[in-house]
Structures are given as C-alpha cells and as structure tokens.
Amino acid sequence: MALVELRNVHKRFRKGDQTITPLDDISLDIEAGEFISLMGPSGTGKSTLLNLVSGIDRPDSGTISVDGMDITQLSRTQSADWRAANLGYIFQTHNLIPVLSAYENVELPTLLLKLTSTQRRQRVQLALEAVGLSDRANHYPRQLSGGQEQRVGIARAIVAHPKVVVADEPTGSLDAGTSDQVLDLLQRLNRELNITILMVTHDSQVAAIATRRLVLDSGKFLEQSIGAKG
Length: 230
Description:
Elements: E1 4-15, E2 18-30, E3 35-39, H1 46-53, E4 61-66, E5 69-70, H2 76-86, E6 87-90, H3 102-107, H4 117-130, H5 146-158, E7 164-168, H6 176-193, E8 196-200, H7 204-207, E9 212-217, E10 220-226
Parallel strand pairs: 3-8, 3-9, 6-7, 7-8
Antiparallel strand pairs: 1-2, 1-4, 4-5, 9-10
C-alpha cells in the first residue's frame, strides 16, 4: 500500500455561470520517502491538490488515504487533529508570527499534540538542528534573513514528525542563491530523514530536484518523469 493514495478524485468549483474542474478523475500513489514535484499552468489545480492531500479541503467524489486513513471521511475537528499529527505544510511566504521567536514559531504545531514539555522541547531542538538554525532559536523573524525565515517555516513543518510534507512554491519569494539553499535543505531532509514531500512549483529547475515529476493540466496528469535522487 502506498503512503498516499488518491482514487478517482474529482474537484469542481462554480465561478459565475461556469463550472471549473481543476481535478478530473485523477488517481495517484505516493510511496513513503518519495519527493514529488508537481508542475502545470496557473489555475490548473496544483494548490487544490495540496489542499486535498492536507485535508484542508474535500473532493466532490473519490477517496484520499494517507497511511491507510481515508481522510475524506473525517469531520472538520477530526481533520484538524489528523493534520496536526500527520501533515507538515511549507508555504511560499513562510507565515511566521512576528511576535514569536524562531523557537516559538516552530513549537506551535506541537502545542496541538499530546506531548510533555520535555518531548516538545526535544522536537523543537531537533527540527531547528535539522535546518541549521539552532543558533537562531531566540531570534525573531525581523532578525532573520528571508532564507532563514523559510528554514524556520520548514522546521515548523517537520517538527511533529509528519507522514507527509506538502510545499506550495517554497522558493517562490526567494532570490536564486537563497532558493538553492532551501532546495538543498529539502533534498537533504528527503534523503537523510526519509521525509515524504509533495511540492508544487512553476519552475522546471526547482522541479528537477525531485525524485518524481508530475505535470497537471486540464484536470489530468499529462506527464510523469522519473529521476534519481541526487
């Protein structure tokens, strides 16, 4: 059984008199430890797919299972609890809380889990160490560079030891040099910690770092190409 299984997933939206179908009867298996990049024209359903896999949204039909759990059957409360324990989300604009330190921003997801204070502290320290920011734990976002802020966002995404990390244009707001650093970090987390990653990007060079590349257009996967871990 794949870690993530999508079966015959449909998603439609109404826009005025039009019905838009970003996802049209798609099926997909994501194995544990895979790093998948997802490309496609703007508005083709890439972010919609991330939101469905994250349990933030629901398909109109079809099923989505993560580690054997059909997340389409969960209530909103159950979905929020499941997401806190199983899913990490990396945003394009890191979404750090300005009045909290790097440590406190990373700690936030752990407050939703049944952990002791010692376990919580260990998780945060490990996550900051994994992204190379142990020495910036007490710094606030305004005291960090854009790349450091994004690395804090990545630490926050992995602190709960999630089964899957989804990333929505994680380098979209970064310059080329900082983008390369973040991509190197994502590759290392995938390779060394076996973190399963599903990443949306519009940049073919960014997509090329993944172990598998998908293209989504008109509600369908049009192309799949397999690469080797580098």
